[in-house]
Design brief:
Bound molecules: pyridoxal-5'-phosphate
Number of strands: 12
CATH superfamily of the largest domain: Type I PLP-dependent aspartate aminotransferase-like (Major domain)
Structural class: alpha/beta
CATH class of the largest domain: Alpha Beta
Strand order of the largest sheet: 1-7-6-5-4-2-3
Radius of gyration: 22 Å
Distance between the termini: 70 Å
Number of domains: 2
CATH topology of the largest domain: Aspartate Aminotransferase, domain 2
Strand content: 5-15%
Helix content: 25-40%
Largest sheet: 7 strands, mixed
Number of helices: 15
Order of helices and strands: HHEHEHEHEHEHEEHHHEHEHEEHEHH
Length: about 400
C-alpha cells in the first residue's frame, strides 16, 4: 500500500457516529461507572481520543510502536531528554535547531546533563565523540538551517554498538520522504508546527518511539510532565496530515527548481539543498530519502553581511519574512538574527550559519512566480551594491 493510502486510512472513522472527520473531544475528564471502570480514558492529560488518533497516525507513518503529541516541537524534544539522568551525555549535531540548543545548554546542562556537538555528516566524528557517559545521539537530518544530511543507518550502528539511543528530528523531511526508525533510529521527533500541520496555524510536537519499552517511558513522561497537545490542535494536525503527501511532493518539485535557479545567480555564493548534485551529502540524501528532497533551501550570499541578508529578506513579495517553515505560503528568514540568535556568534558561524545565510521555505505557490520574486529581490541587492561602489570609489567609478 502506498504511503498516501495508508495515511488516509489510518485516520479512524468515529465509531459512535460514523463521522469521517475525527471529532474534537473537548473534555477534561470522563465519567466512570465505578472507580477505575471506564471506556479507556479517565483524565484528559493522560489520554484524549482526538490526541490518540493523531498519535496513532504519526506512529503508523513513522513505522514506530507509539507516538505522543506535545504542545510544541520543543516540548516533544524536552520529553525525550527527560529519558536521561544527571551525569548522562548527549552527542548532538553541531548544526542543531536554535531552540533545541537553548534547551540543552540553558536548562539541561544546569540539571547535570552534558552535551557535546560534532559534525555528524561524517559518522566517524560521532564514533570519536562518544564516551561511556553518552546515552543519546541527537540528529537532525536534513538539519536546520544548513541542510546537513547525516547517515542515519551508519550512526544507528554506532549507537547500538555503544548502547545508546538515537533520536532523529525528522521535521524537515517528514515521514513522506524519510522514516528514520526504518533506518535504525529509536525515537523520531517532529515540530508538528511545520509540515505535519502544514498551514502555519498551530504549534505542535510529536515524539514516536520504536519499541514498546521506550513508548512506555515516553508515555509516562508525557503524563508526568503534562506538556500535551490540546484536542483542537490535534484535530488541525490530523487535517493537515491528510494532505501531507501532496504538499511534500509539490514543495519538493518547486524547491528543486528554485535551488537550481539560485545556483545561476552571482549574488549567491552557495546554495544548500540536498537535492542538488553540488550538495556534499547528496548521495546519502538519495540513499535514505525517497520521493524528493523537501521544501527548505538555504543560500549564502556572496556579500556575507547582515546588511545584505536584511536587504534580501525585505525585498521579496511572495516569500514573507517570518520564523517557521513548512506552511502553504512561502516564507524566508535570516537565521543569524532570527531562529538561531540564541547561539553565540562564534559557535553559530563555526557550524555554517553565516551572517549572509538566508533560509527559504518554499510554499505551494507556482514555482515560476517564486523564482521571479527571488530574481527581483536579488536584482535589488545587486543595485544596492553598485550604488555602494560608486559612492565609495567616487570619481574613479563615474569617470
Ligand atoms: C521549529 C523546529 C523545532 C521546534 O518546534 P516548535 O514547534 O517551534 O517548538 C524543532 N526542530 C526543528 C528542526 C524545527 O524546525
Amino acid at each position: 500500500m502506498s504511503i498516501a493510502t495508508r495515511l488516509l486510512h489510518s485516520i479512524p472513522v468515529d465509531e459512535q457516529t460514523g463521522a469521517i472527520a475525527v471529532p474534537i473531544y473537548q473534555t477534561s475528564t470522563y465519567v466512570q461507572e465505578a472507580p477505575g471502570v471506564n471506556k479507556g480514558f479517565d483524565y484528559a492529560r493522560t489520554g484524549n481520543p482526538t490526541r490518540l488518533a493523531l498519535e496513532n497516525l504519526v506512529a503508523t507513518l513513522e513505522g514506530g510502536h507509539s507516538g505522543y503529541a506535545f504542545a510544541s516541537g520543543l516540548a516533544a524534544i524536552d520529553a525525550v531528554v527527560k529519558l536521561l539522568s544527571a551525569g548522562d551525555q548527549i552527542v548532538a549535531i553541531d548544526d542543531i535547531y536554535g531552540g533545541a540548543f537553548r534547551l540543552f545548554e540553558h536548562v539541561y546542562r544546569r540539571l547535570g546533563i552534558d552535551i557535546v556537538y560534532c559534525d555528524t555528516t561524517n559518522a566517524e566524528n560521532v564514533a570519536k565523540t562518544i564516551t561511556d557517559k553518552t546515552k543519546l545521539i541527537w540528529l537532525e537530518s536534513p538539519s536546520n538551517p544548513t541542510l546537513k544530511v547525516s547517515d542515519i543507518a551508519a550512526i544507528s550502528a554506532i549507537a547500538k554498538a555503544h548502547n545508546c539511543l538515537l533520536c532523529v528530528d525528522n521535521t524537515f523531511a517528514s515521514p513522506i520522504l524519510q522514516r528514520p526508525i526504518e533506518l535504525g533510529a529509536d525515537i523520531v521527533v517532529h515540530s508538528g508546527t511545520k509540515y505535519l500541520g502544514g498551514h502555519s496555524d498551530l504549534i505542535a510536537g510529536i515524539a514516536v518511539a520504536k519499541t514498546e519499552e521506550l513508548a512506555k517511558e515516553l508515555k509516562f513522561i508525557q503524563n508526568a510532565s503534562g506538556g500535551i497537545l490540546g484536542p483542537f490542535d490535534c484535530f488541525l494536525t490530523i487535517r493537515g496530515i491528510e494532505t501531507l503527501p501532496l504538499r511534500i511532493e509539490r514543495t519538493s518539485t518547486s524547491a528543486l527548481e528554485v535551488a537550481k535557479f539560485l545556483e545561476t545567480r552571482p549574488e549567491v555564493a552557495r546554495v544548500y539543498y540536498p537535492g542538488l548534485e553540488s550538495h556534499p551529502n547528496h548521495e546519502v540524501a538519495k540513499k535514505q530519502q525517497s520521493g524528493g528532497f523537501g521544501g527548505i533551501i538555504a543560500l549564502a550570499l556572496t556579500e556575507d553581511t547582515i546588511e545584505a541578508a536584511t536587504k534580501l529578506v525585505t525585498s521579496t513579495k511572495y516569500f514573507k519574512l517570518a520564523e517557521s517553515l513548512g506552511g502553504a505560503k512561502s516564507l524566508l528568514c535570516h537565521p543569524a538574527t532570527m531562529t538561531h540568535k540564541s547561539i553565540p556568534a562564534p559557535t553559530r558561524q563555526a557550524s555554517g550559519v553565516a551572517d549572509g545565510l538566508v533560509r527559504l521555505s518554499v510554499g505551494l505557490e507556482d514555482a515560476a512566480d517564486l523564482i521571479a520574486d527571488l530574481a527581483q529581490a536579488l536584482d535589488a541587492l545587486a543595485a544596492i551594491k553598485e550604488e555602494h561602489v560608486v559612492t565609495k570609489e567616487g570619481e574613479l567609478v563615474v569617470a
